[in-house]
Amino acid sequence: QPVSTGQAMHPLHGGLLGLARTVRSEQPTADLTYLDVTSAGRPAVCDALGAVSRAALAGKKLEPEVAVSTDVSRRVPRLAEAAQSLGGPIRMHFDTRGAISNMSIVAQQPDASAVPPREARLSVRAVGINFRDVLNILGAYPGD
Prior knowledge:
By secondary structure, this protein is an alpha+beta fold. The chain has 3 helices and 5 strands. It has helices at about 15-25, 40-55, 130-140; strands spanning about 35, 65-70, 75, 90-95, 105.
């Protein structure tokens, strides 16, 4: 993965990252660090290798994945909460079959009607699509 948006990606190295993640998943006691130096110059690589080596020899817990940029900065992957793009009721919609990119999320009019007795209004906070839905969107579902 690129350290910044202006740098090219190196998909050939994706296999190494996948291997490192698999080893860490299957052997949690293995202290394995993936150091991405593909977009860094020689000084940055030497500095990063030195820092990782010193930390490992000192017995410090290392970051599992580190990307080093040309300005010697180090970046690590972190999850951030995504901003909600639409507020209120939404629905998944697709205009034409043939590609997943034809699917979109559109706003839905809120239901302002009163809830009848012995009934309830549910609020769904997450949805997903299954394989059959994907085949249906692609127009590849048998029998369509």
